[in-house]
Q: What sequence folds into this?
């Protein structure tokens, strides 16, 4: 295959509400849309694919501007040289185009001789915000069929606990995934989790309770709680698997394309994490449109499904420039069967 053309442009879509986590605030997606055209040099067949480069500074080192600046230098670089957000978008676009040439859904191309999943059930994220606003968002999402809430915490443990208690009171049949985005000490994380249990919340997992490099603190939380601890910021690629396992710092990892660079690498690392280290899998996103969510969903599907699908940010946008990829029925995402990502 030969790359015939590559273009990159800003992908800036307003959110319905600010997306606030312990380390960042986003009101417009700070992403980049990549389009590539490839040519089969044997047959002459052509196909165009798309990918989304997701940035969320300082969670990612890259910004929208830095990714655009780097991609503008093509063809001075090759895809193999790319890392991070730029790699995510370019490799996704190439995989999309390749699967379109083959005429099959991308999840089948990624799964190889294994059977991919066709449906995934996602959580929905509640960003940090005023207590009443978080409660009203929970009620609205529950009315749309969502039963699992990923609640962002990590800025103020006392305020976080009040928010969790209020949400639980308003939607008592929900389950929860708590995500501190590296904002807590071990003591704070343990105290918040135990208080939630006393209040009757069903906590499915606790994502990145402590600092990115604070593996001792992560291990302390993991040892103290029966709730699975999921490494996000502490997991940046396959090289981290052995260290996380050795330190007993996590029970699972969050496979994000912006960290792993390509869909194939995400699938391979997910399989390795399960088979060799016994880790649970979350497939999450940054703040991405339907295009980026569809790519992540194809990874989760190629893995036969994962324990914690976190594929919700397209629901948080005021409008989405893309269609297709999946059909959403509340939290249930049914992947479509067109070629590639089938996202338009």
A:
């Amino acid at each position: 295959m030969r790359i015939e053309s590559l273009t990159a442009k800003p992908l800036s879509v307003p959110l319905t509400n600010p997306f606030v986590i312990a380390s960042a605030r986003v009101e417009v997606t700070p992403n980049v849309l990549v389009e590539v055209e490839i040519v089969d040099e044997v047959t002459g067949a052509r196909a165009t694919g798309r990918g989304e480069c997701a940035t969320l500074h300082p969670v990612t080192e890259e910004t929208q501007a830095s990714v655009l600046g780097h991609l503008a230098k093509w063809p001075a670089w090759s895809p193999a040289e790319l890392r991070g957000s730029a790699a995510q978008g370019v490799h996704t676009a190439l995989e999309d185009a390749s699967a379109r040439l083959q005429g099959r859904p991308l999840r089948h191309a990624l799964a190889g001789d294994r059977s991919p999943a066709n449906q995934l059930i996602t959580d929905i994220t509640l960003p940090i915000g005023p207590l009443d606003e978080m409660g009203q968002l929970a009620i609205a999402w529950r009315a749309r069929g969502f039963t699992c809430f990923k609640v962002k915490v990590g800025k103020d443990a006392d305020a976080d606990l009040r928010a969790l208690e209020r949400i639980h009171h308003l939607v008592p049949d929900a389950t929860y995934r708590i995500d501190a985005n590296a904002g807590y000490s071990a003591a704070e994380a343990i105290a918040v989790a135990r208080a939630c249990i006393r209040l009757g919340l069903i906590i499915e997992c606790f994502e990145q309770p402590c600092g990115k490099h604070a593996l001792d603190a992560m291990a302390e939380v993991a040892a103290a709680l029966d709730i699975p601890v999921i490494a996000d910021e502490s997991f940046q690629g396959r090289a981290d698997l052995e260290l996380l396992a050795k330190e007993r710092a996590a029970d699972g990892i969050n496979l994000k394309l912006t960290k792993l660079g390509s869909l194939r690498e995400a699938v391979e690392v997910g399989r390795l994490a399960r088979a060799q280290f016994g880790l649970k899998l979350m497939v999450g996103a940054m703040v991405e449109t339907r295009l980026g969510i569809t790519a992540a969903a194809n990874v989760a599907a190629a893995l036969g499904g994962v324990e914690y699908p976190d594929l919700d940010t397209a629901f948080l946008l005021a409008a989405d420039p893309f269609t297709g990829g999946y059909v959403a029925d509340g939290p249930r995402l049914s992947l479509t069967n067109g070629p590639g990502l089938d996202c338009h």
Observations:
- The chain has a mean pLDDT of 96.
- The first strand starts at residue 2 and ends at 11.
- The domain at 2-103 is CATH 3.30.390.10 (Enolase-like; domain 1).
